[in-house]
Amino acid sequence: QSVLTQPPSASGTPGQRVTISCSGSSSNIGSNYVYWYQQLPGTAPKLLIYRNNQRPSGVPDRFSGSKSGTSASLAISGLRSEDEADYYCAAWDDSLRGVFGGGTKLTVL
Amino acid sequence: EVQLVESGGGLVQPGRSLRLSCAASGFTFDDYAMHWVRQAPGKGLEWVSGISWNSGSIGYADSVKGRFTISRDNAKNSLYLQMNSLRAEDTALYYCVKRGFITGLDYWGQGTLVTVSS
């Protein structure tokens, strides 16, 4: 049972916009930043979004993050086949331990 | 280029010990906190442990507290995870991860697989 709650799956067709939600509590998302990771099949996770809505260099602006209260979401616009991956949200809790969502498997139809 | 290379994984019997290592390069190792994150086969990510740049602050997930010990050697640019009293549920790919100043867990190694089985 993961501390942060994500839908197990999401899907969309090429060019569509999809969003993935992440729900937490006042002790994690509610009082700390949210991070998003993309994990392509057979590879290590890659940082996609930091501090709720910031993109590391090299991450396309098709990816965007937002946070409100104890929830956050990742939006992917202009969906492409190479976006098919697992997506994880993460945060630090008030005890400075890391917490992750269970992951969302994104399928590009 | 940041590189994190884990080693030390393998097959181990329940109750035994294993020590993981992570060799870091491409950045000033002793400026950054480091973490271990694991992923059981076919499952999601689980934060395991973290250590500050000077080892002054250390944290563990409840699932490993009292059994695992994180440490680092800044002179050797290395991170370690001593795992004792291993259980079947510790079977996972263990990632060594750098924590950036503002970017969170920003660089991940490729992982080392630990399998706990009799």
Q: Output the structural class of chain B.
A: mainly beta
**Number of E strands of chain B:** 11
- What is the CA-CA span between the terminal residues of chain B? 40 Å
Mean pLDDT over the residues of chain A: 96
**How many helices of chain A does DSSP assign?**
0
Order of helices and strands of chain A: EEEEEEEEE
Report how far apart the termini of chain A are: 28 Å
What is this structure, in a nutshell?
Chain A has about 110 residues and is an all-beta fold. Chain A has strands at about 10, 20-25, 35-40, 45-50, 65-70, 70-75, 85-90, 100, 105-109.
Give an overview in words:
The complex is a heterodimer of chains A (109) and B (118). Chain A has 109 residues and is mostly beta strands. Chain A is 0% helix and 44% strand. In chain A, the strands form two sheets. In chain A, strands 1, 3, 4, 7, 8 and 9 form a six-stranded mixed β-sheet that branches. A three-stranded antiparallel β-sheet of chain A has the order 2-6-5, with no helix packed on it. Chain A is globular, with a radius of gyration of 13 Å. In chain B, 0% of the residues lie in helices and 52% in strands. Chain B has no helices and eleven strands. Chain B has strands spanning 3-7, 10-12, 18-25, 34-39, 45-51, 58-60, 68-73, 78-83, 92-99, 105-108, 112-116. In chain B, strands 2, 4, 5, 6, 9, 10 and 11 form a seven-stranded mixed β-sheet that branches. A four-stranded antiparallel β-sheet of chain B has the order 1-3-8-7, with no helix packed on it. The model of chain B has no long low-confidence stretch (mean pLDDT 97). Chain A binds chain B through residues 2, 33, 35, 37, 44-47, 50-51, 54, 56, 86, 88, 90, 95-103, and chain B through 35, 37, 44-47, 50, 57, 59-61, 95, 100, 102-111.
